[in-house]
Amino acid sequence: MSKNLNNHLKRATAALLVRIDGRSRVGLQQQVYAAVRRGILNSVIKAGTRLPSSRALAEDLCVSRTTTLLAYEQLTAEGYLTTRTGSGTFVADEIPDDLARTTASRPLATKHPPLSRRGIAMAGLPSAWRRLPGSSRPFRAGVPGLDLFPLRLWSQLVNRRLRSATIAQLDYNDAAGFPDLREAIAGHVQAARGTRVGADQVLIVAGAQRAFDLVCNLLLDSGDKAWLEEPGYPGARSALVGAGARIVPVRVDEQGLDVDAGIRRAPDARLAYVTPSHQFPLGVPMTLTRRLALLKWANAAGAWVVEDDYDSEFRYGTRAIPCLHGLDVEGRVIYIGSFSKTLFPALRLGFMIVPGDLRDRMLAVRRATDVHPQLLDQAVLADFIAGGHFERHLRRMRTVYRERLEALIAATRRYCGGGLQIRPVTTGLHAVADLSAADALTVSEEAYARGVEVAPMERYCITPSRAANALVLGFAAVRPEGFRNGMERLAAAIDAARRGQQRGIVRRTTTVERSRDRQVGGTVRLR
Known about the structure:
The protein is of the alpha/beta class. The protein contains 17 helices and 15 strands. The protein has an eight-stranded mixed beta sheet with strand order 4-11-10-9-8-5-6-7, sandwiched between helices. A four-stranded antiparallel beta sheet has the order 12-13-15-14, covered by helices on one side. Strands 1-3-2 form a three-stranded antiparallel beta sheet. A hairpin with a 2-residue loop joins β6 (246-253) and β7 (256-257).
């Protein structure tokens, strides 16, 4: 090696500024890699600079050549270094970090292709709830009492299943779902919901929303009409939009879905989505007369009925109403249930009960999309139900939710007086409250600013102008001590919304009077 080249490599070695710390928990190879990379990024080692060989660097640092060789190889693989046969190792002319910065600062030269019409429609759907970060706040709907879930017991069941796991369970599993869980669900539904079902009719899905998507994609063509309750569940609306259906909003009154109104609007609809046991969000049950009329229409029209039985397990002072599926003798009803409200939302497991002649085709659609839900969760849930823990948890939570509902009503009367009236609640985890002197949408925005989550009724309507001036208040996830503080903040939000409306009325009245006075040449007088 020539004297000049030897001196150059010594200077390059020194410029690398590699310092080895034998007491560090970071391995020697990683220390060399990090030091060289840092020198390149800080421009201490310029692009195109020739580096000392891995052997020379190892001798200089008193480490194994394997250490420096592996560090160089990692830097080369990541694009920081490049090798030239017969010449050595050099810093790359363009390093990955430069490319990343250049790409980030460069405007897009071309626009992406437009979204599909369905994609645009789904992306434009309004969200019913604005959620604050962190744990559940007053009065977040759709969340059960997670503070009382038997987490320790659940963890024990998880650990037991993990210890007994087999190699076969690591493979793809039954697309219909874990057999033991399907058996357990069939038994529960027959006992609790008054219907007849075999385990072969039960399909396990990753939450109720996944069931809606499967049903709509299998049964609806683009442009097919579908009845949707008004107001109604936004998740069902998004599934229908995703399938390209023409949504026909059908009003809900004190007897549930108005079947006659639906027939007048779209007698040839292919599907009707309903929540007959506890209408979402109004909370009213569908009467027997309406249920029979709905089934009669479905049979005559050759239509399907999707029954969403989302939280019927929780009733207060009234007997459970048998599900619509139990009245169906023609196989028109597809029953959908979920464990998000009975256990916890992070458990993305639900189920659907389908007619026998639809099962194989539904499974074919399932295999073409998500194959099957996570097996461990299914097995643990099966053990939870079979061991009687599910029924005990439901009994306990019925008592707790009744107490929390009473606390909600008491706090509303104390802090809101007649400005907020809770409608009667017989089922479920939320209440509907009518506002008398403030706009619901404005109140929800004021409440959000104060750390309280409430949803105006209009967010559940396709035609917001038809919505009642009311709020949806979840009470299941609020601990007893949280009702006072939450309702105080909600009362402040109502007061702020009312004052804002009054100022708006004064401003509008003043503007009209000024215009009138200018027309007659009079003096402007403010009220």
